[in-house]
Structures are given as structure tokens and as C-alpha cells.
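thread: overnight batch results

M.L. [08:02]
morning all. the overnight job finished for the chain we discussed friday. pasting input first so we're all looking at the same thing
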Amino acid sequence: MQTHNHIEAVIFDWAGTTVDYGCFAPVQVFTEVFTNAGVAPTPQEVRKPMGMLKWDHIRTMLEMPRIKREWIRLYGQAPTDTDADKLYASYEPALLHILTRYADPKPYVVETIKKLRALGIKIGSTTGYTDIMMEIVAPQAAKAGYAPDCWFSPDSCNKKGRPYPYMIFKNMEALQIDSVSKVIKAGDTVADILEGKNAGVFTIGILDGSSVIGLSEAEFEALSEDEKKCAPKTCRTEISGCRSRCGCPRYPRDPGISVITKEQSPASVYKRKCALYADAKNLICQRDVGSGSVIPFCCFARKRIP
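M.L. [08:03]
and the structure it wrote out:
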């Protein structure tokens, strides 16, 4: 039986999780590329495969029933890998052109990373971007204060991106982590959750600023308090639908678990003695160190944690 008394690394996704609030850079370009090909996708169709390698994302969209029907109507045959290649050939340069505008860290990411490192926790990262894309995003994010200890794209794993677990294992090797029981993976898409699940690590779904919610920061803040509560509830249903280790009820079910936030109670998820919290306002992770005591070691929050 695994023990979970010491977390040594947290591995974050990039767009929608730590940078690019709402994950808009890839969405914008996917929409443009498909529209230019004669099949305008809906926002839901564009976002559903988010987190995958970008070529795989395009191929997955081409197999969606409505898009596939439209493609056959326009071109007289079902979409092929060659069609995906052509769309990707348009997609990559268009994305590279705008990436610098979508590389700023999300609110309180920089502060969160500082708190984690102060506790001796290493910071890794995985992405659906390619190395070429990350060579733009990573330096730009670093200028703004966010620089993980390492990052790996599907290019490092023979193009085997999410939901394969190999990028997580690359991080573990680089960070010298000897057990999946010492790792947490955090991301904002179903593909992120499946990546963590397949690697056997604790997995957290990020909702605030996520691709799943799909709102800009200004759009989210413009919602009423009731609307803000409804949006995460709907998204938690989608995340839990991938059979992740993280279910997301609205409130903690264990009154013995302390919460280090002055805002609304976070959602809670449980795995043996480890409690992980996630909702649209906070990401708080806690680890059990014995005797029922719980030590906070990670938080994204709108208010600073003392």
C-alpha cells in the first residue's frame, strides 16, 4: 500500500492553469483554422480536446460527429490524417504569432510557487504545446515571475502527449522524485486529469481561469455570485466524468479538516489520508502528516494566505 506522507513535487499544466487565463490562445487559432477550412466549430467543440498535443487535438475535432458531417458535405469524403496535417500546418505559425500575448501568469500563481518552494517542494510542468511553442511561452512567463524547475512537451516523449503519462515521468526523472506517491499533478482539462490518473499521481482539476469554464478573467468577475457558483458546479461534473481521482463536491465533508482561507469554503476531494481542495476561487492542497494534523502546502487564492 502506498503512503502519502510527503509530497516532493507539484507538476502544473501551462495554458489555463498557470498562464493564459481561460486558455484563449489555442482556442482562438483552432477556431480560425477550422473556420477558414469551411467548418466553423463551436466553442465547446474547440475546448473539449484541450490539453492534448495540438495535432491530436485537430484530429480529434475532425472526428466529432457534426464537424465530420460538415467536412464530408464540403469535401465529399471523411477527414483524414492528411487533412489534419494541412490544418496543423496553418495552425502552428498562427499560434506562434500570438503566444507572447498569452504567456502572463494567472493571479497568485507566482505567490503560490514561492510558497511551495519555501516548503522545499519542486515545481515541474507538462503541456500540450510543442517545444517550439514553449520556447516562446516559458521565457515570457519567466520575465513575469513564473519559471518551473523544468518543463516537458510531447516532443520529449515521441509525440505521446496526454493522456499518456510520460511527460510526468520525465518530470520525475529530472526532479529526481523516486515515487509517484510523492507527486501531485494539477491541470485545467480532462486530458490533464487523465494524464495524472494514468501516471498514478494525485491529480487536481483547476477551475478558476480554466479552459473548462472558458471565460476571461473580466468575464468571470462580471458574473453574479450565484452565476460564479453555478459555473464551477457544471465544470466539476465534466471533470469527474473522466473518472479522475478528484471528485469535487461543493463543501468539505470532513469537519475535522481545517481550511486556510477567509473566502468561501473550498470543494474537497479525498484519497486515503490526503485532502485536496479545488474550486473556482481557490486551489488548496493539504497533506496528512500523522495524528490527524494537516499542513497546507499549496494554494491559488484571491486573498493572500498568511
